Structure to design on (583 residues):
């Protein structure tokens, strides 16, 4: 391997890693706030790509059907639980949040499609359709078992991922898509070609991470999310509802995953089931960060991207095997580190 | 009409009943204390009033049935608990902890003014405003827990053993602060093992033993009760 090739692979790896950073940060966010290891963020990313591809060709994306179906189901679950609690006064809000708003988004997008809107509008439409999906899934699947163990939540999360793959096939069909590059810009630095897409991916990862940081540090809602992550009982005693903090976390995580889906679609062909590998690799990055530290997660996700890039140069058939084999020593290292810090607490 | 009145409240952990048929009430502006030995059920009672534990019996706050409100709604209505474990946000700054105390309030414009008020009351917190809560000393943590509670402008402040684990000098400071809160018009339900200090601060007192109220009366009567002196107030 020449230095030139190493440099190209390095740049490629950073761009791939930046995609994983976006998904991984969402994963950590959800885990710290709700204790759910949300495997389906990869699916959310893939569905965003499929949605955008449909919108690009003027078709009605399957996301609309998926969104309406989930909205109806979530409304049913919420209203049933409100009736059981005899909280009849909250039922109109349940309809507003779980049915009217998602349905309105679906309707607006559906009406806009025949007008052939420009790319920025299509991006916004794709993200708007994707954002409510994870919060709705949370209401349907995780809220009823919110007090369960992390393991139970993880098992349900994995099951949910497989259910989503099935729904993906139903609503999007088996064809793969690749969207137009968002930019045709190219430039050369020190003999390495940088495409506009690569730059865009890295810039987006930096910008969205920075925005999240500002949100956490400077807004009351952001602080309430951190508070919930640090001490749920303490947060509840301040009047912060863990379920609401969870919804905000799912929205933010979906935004990050949706952006990553938009960025990856011009680079890789995306199928209804492509989310699994994205989600799993982001998860490996999040594990490197101990499922707690955002900078650690970002470094971990970039590391996974670079590893994948070099592995695919050596043997493209085995690149995923190489990446996931790395998981074993990392898990051993992390569990040793966790043991160590527990001992410190005991002292 | 009482601010809070509870009647025949029972609280159980699984099958063990830790609080039996407890009734008590607090008028607006009053400081009421619940004293009792280790394991008497004081914390259990506080957790039930705030809604973190399920209970049987009747609880009325501001004329409404508390059973219909979850923890967050109770907090939104001005009920506030400083729990025995403090439950601070250790990895967040003192300032952030205080601001989060105001989370449930709707009058956001008053928050900076109240923050200044808390800093005046506890100058130590102002010095440490950007320090992480986890790095504070025991006394400072208690001040932060109190300050964070005050940031919610509670109508009824419940304090679970605010003197627990603190040095005598700081205990005196904490009780002075509690007494000075009277001026702000807040009602206080004070749980203590430090019976003498609690009765000196309070208007009315209840004595709880093994989950039941065994005695109650005006604080200045209880403090001279011979049986109580023998049991809790020691010789000094
Ligand atoms: N989580 C729990 N599960 C089961 N039993 C509990 C639990 N917490 C407390 N208890 C029991 O309930 C009873 C009352 O405990 P509680 O903590 O309310 O007492 P307390 O008056 O606050 O005591 P202290 O002064 O030590 O804080 C005790 O017998 C205790 O062992
Ligand atoms: Mg106690």
């Amino acid at each position: 391997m020449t230095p030139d090739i190493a440099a190209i692979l390095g740049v490629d790896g950073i761009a791939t890693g930046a995609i994983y950073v976006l998904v991984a940060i969402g994963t950590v966010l959800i885990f710290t706030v709700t204790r759910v290891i949300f495997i389906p963020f990869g699916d959310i990313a893939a569905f965003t790509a499929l949605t955008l591809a449909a919108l690009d060709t003027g078709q009605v994306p399957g996301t609309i059907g998926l969104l309406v179906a989930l909205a109806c189901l979530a409304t049913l679950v919420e209203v049933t639980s409100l009736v059981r609690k005899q909280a009849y006064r909250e039922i109109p809000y349940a309809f507003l949040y779980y049915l009217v708003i998602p349905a309105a988004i679906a309707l607006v997008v559906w009406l806009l499609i025949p007008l052939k809107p420009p790319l920025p509008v299509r991006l916004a439409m794709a993200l708007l359709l994707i954002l409510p999906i994870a919060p709705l899934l949370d209401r349907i699947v995780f809220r009823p078992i919110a007090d369960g163990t992390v393991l139970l939540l993880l098992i349900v999360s994995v099951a949910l991922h497989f259910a989503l793959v099935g729904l993906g096939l139903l609503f999007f069909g088996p064809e793969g898509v690749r969207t137009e590059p968002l930019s045709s810009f190219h430039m050369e630095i020190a003999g390495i070609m940088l495409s506009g897409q690569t730059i865009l991916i890295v810039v987006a990862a930096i910008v969205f991470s920075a925005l999240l940081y500002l949100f956490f540090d400077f807004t009351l809602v952001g602080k309430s999310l951190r508070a919930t992550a640090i001490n749920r009982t303490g947060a509840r005693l301040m009047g912060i509802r863990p379920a609401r903090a969870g919804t905000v976390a799912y929205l933010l995580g979906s935004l990050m995953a949706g952006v990553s889906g938009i960025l990856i679609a011009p680079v890789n062909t995306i199928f209804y089931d492509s989310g699994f590998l994205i989600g799993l690799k982001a998860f490996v990055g999040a594990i490197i960060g101990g499922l707690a530290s955002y900078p650690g997660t970002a470094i971990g996700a970039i590391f996974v991207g670079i590893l994948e890039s070099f592995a695919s140069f050596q043997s493209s058939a085995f690149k995923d095997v190489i990446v996931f084999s790395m998981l074993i020593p990392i898990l051993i290292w992390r569990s040793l580190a966790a043991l160590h810090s527990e001992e410190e607490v005991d002292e | 009409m009482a601010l809070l009145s509870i009647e025949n409240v029972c609280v159980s952990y699984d099958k063990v009943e830790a609080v039996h048929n407890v009734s008590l009430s607090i008028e607006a502006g009053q400081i009421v204390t619940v004293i009792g030995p280790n394991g008497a059920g004081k914390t259990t009672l506080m957790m039930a009033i705030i809604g973190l534990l399920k209970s049987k019996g009747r609880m009325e706050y501001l004329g409404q049935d508390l059973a219909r409100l979850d923890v967050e709604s109770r907090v939104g209505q001005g009920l506030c608990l400083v729990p025995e474990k403090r439950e601070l946000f250790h990895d967040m700054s003192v300032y952030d902890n205080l601001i989060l105390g105001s989370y449930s309030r709707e009058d956001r414009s008053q928050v900076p003014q109240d923050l200044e008020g808390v800093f005046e009351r506890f100058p130590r917190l102002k010095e440490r405003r950007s320090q992480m809560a986890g790095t504070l000393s025991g006394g400072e943590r208690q001040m932060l827990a109190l300050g964070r509670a005050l940031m919610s402008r509670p109508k009824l402040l419940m304090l679970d053993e605010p003197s627990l684990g603190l040095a005598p000098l700081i205990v005196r400071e904490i009780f002075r602060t509690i007494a000075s809160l009277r001026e702000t018009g807040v009602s206080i339900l004070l749980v203590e093992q430090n019976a003498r200090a609690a009765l000196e601060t309070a208007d009315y007192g209840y004595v709880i033993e093994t989950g039941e109220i065994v005695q109650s009366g005006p604080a200045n009567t209880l403090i001279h009760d011979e049986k109580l002196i023998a049991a809790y107030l020691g010789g000094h």
About this structure: Chain A has a mean pLDDT of 89.
